[in-house]
Design brief:
single chain; about 475 residues; alpha/beta; four-stranded parallel beta sheet; 19 helices; about 50% helix
């Protein structure tokens, strides 16, 4: 019987072990999509305790704690750090077969050298030992990144953000490249005119543009896009429920924008037109700078209105949506192709029933100019566990070129999440190693190992130009 989390965790064949040890494990990490707070990197923050570093903002853990019957006081409420951690430790034994069980113990081992299983019996000692380490200079945020061999990371930033923290990081000469990502979701969030207008005021101040018309909005966004480029940005990101690809005209957009500025609610059809125009605008900006555009598609957000009112968004009350994506996605990419403005693109789906749809769609717009110009992105959010990762790898392999895949990302708000790259790499090597052992792939470690190295690091480095 194998020991839990031993050196060959997730590696079930000699070929898988060899692939991982020789070709995956040594590769640096390019984390091209995450939600790490750049202010923590700029300040080289040291966390006061393990709860600060591990539980703050982690809605994966919050959902598990609620499912385990833990009161909100111990999740996002007023309980002390130690009380919250003890409640998390009380929950961990109930996460067996949930990826949280693997991630929790990988993180304890890789960052703190703690090999004990987290449970109510071991919780206090683990909390004290890890918290003491976190308070030391060796566990500052920058040193945590160094420890995980991170080479480049891209945060997620609103166009109205000042990027002052990125500027500080650059001025400090930090050797790990920390780049912003242009995430303009709020600039097309027209379903709530009041919130949209409040955002436009923020954007206007950041861009130094008086936004009175749709033309002014485009000018403001272009200025911020240019500024992000000056700050090293090479990617945009868009969190969409679904793709939008309705026809629009400049005159029609001016009319809709005027309605919004008058606090008038658009019809659903009008909102779709507005969002369609914005997606084209952003795509054309990205093309002009040769950026990579990313689309995270399919989340049904804030489904619990009571919790939204009391706790706000991004607190663990989002789910998998079931929209029909194919036709609109095809029309959107086709419209860019016809304009000659389709840049490098990554699409991520949240509903596993859409895996083959997304994996096949990207093949329609490869043009021979860039290897893997359109990418079917890594398993995301509810799909970043072992089964979801394998589903994504299999769909991509069956319908495209796994060897051109840009690999894994953390999509995390925690500096302790980098073992997720190890998790992915072990799963990748196990899948390939098993097929080598069974004759589905050649018994050629250099051939298959080269694929592993590219997927873990080399492809992302070349694709993004890092």
């Amino acid at each position: 019987m194998k020991k839990f989390l031993d050196d060959n965790f997730l590696l079930s064949s000699p070929a898988a072990v060899e692939l991982y040890r020789r070709h995956a494990e040594p590769q640096p990490i390019i984390d091209y999509h995450n939600h790490l707070p750049p202010q923590d990197i700029a300040a080289d923050r040291r966390f006061g305790d393990l709860t600060e570093a591990w539980l703050e903002g982690d809605h994966y853990k919050w959902r598990a704690m609620r499912a385990n019957g833990i009161a909100e006081q111990y999740i996002t409420g007023s309980a002390s750090s130690e009380e919250k951690f003890l409640k998390w430790a009380e929950t961990v034994p109930h996460t067996l077969r949930n990826p949280l069980y693997h991630w929790t113990h990988l993180e304890l081992r890789r960052y703190f050298g703690i090999h004990e299983i987290l449970s109510p019996k071991t919780a206090k000692a683990i909390f004290e030992a890890a918290s003491e380490q976190l308070r030391q200079p060796e566990c500052s945020t920058r040193n945590l990144l160094r420890r995980m061999n991170v080479r480049t990371l891209c945060t997620t930033d609103d166009p109205a953000d000042s990027l002052e923290h990125h500027q500080k990081i650059r001025e400090d000469g930090f050797e790990i490249a920390v780049m912003p990502t242009f995430r303009p979701d709020k600039a097309m969030a027209v379903d709530d005119p009041s919130a949209f207008n409040a955002y436009l005021d923020r954007l206007a101040a950041a861009a130094d543009v008086d936004i009175r018309s749709f033309s002014d909005l485009k000018t403001a966004l272009q200025r911020r896009h240019d500024f992000f480029g000056e700050m090293g940005c090479r990617l945009s990101d868009h969190g969409l429920s679904e793709f939008y690809a309705e026809p629009f005209t400049e005159a029609g957009m001016e009319r809709l924008f005027s309605q919004l500025r008058q606090q008038k609610t658009l019809t659903l059809a009008e909102a779709r037109v507005f969002k369609s125009a914005m997606l084209v605008l952003f795509a054309e900006m990205d093309f002009e700078k040769s950026w990579v555009q990313q689309f995270h598609v399919g989340a049904l957000r804030n489904v619990n209105p009571t919790k939204l009112r009391s706790l706000g968004p991004d607190t663990g009350f989002d789910t998998i949506g079931d929209w029909r994506h194919g036709e609109a996605m095809a029309r959107f990419f086709a419209s860019l192709e016809e304009r000659g403005t389709l840049t490098k693109t990554i699409v991520y789906n949240l509903n596993p029933s859409d895996n083959y749809l997304f994996a096949s769609m990207v093949g329609n717009f490869q043009d021979g100019t860039v290897p893997g110009k359109l990418q079917y992105g890594a398993g995301w959010w509810f799909l970043d566990q072992k089964a979801g990762i394998e589903w994504q790898l299999n769909a991509l392999s069956n319908l495209g070129l796994l060897s051109r895949f840009v690999g894994m990302l953390t999509d995390s708000r925690s500096f302790l999440s980098y073992p997720r790259h190890e998790y992915f790499r072990r799963i990748l090597c196990n899948l390939l190693g098993h097929e080598m052992e069974t004759g589905l792939l050649p018994d050629d470690l250099e051939l298959v190992g080269g694929l592993v190295e590219r997927v873990c690091y080399g492809n992302a480095k070349a694709y993004f130009g890092f």
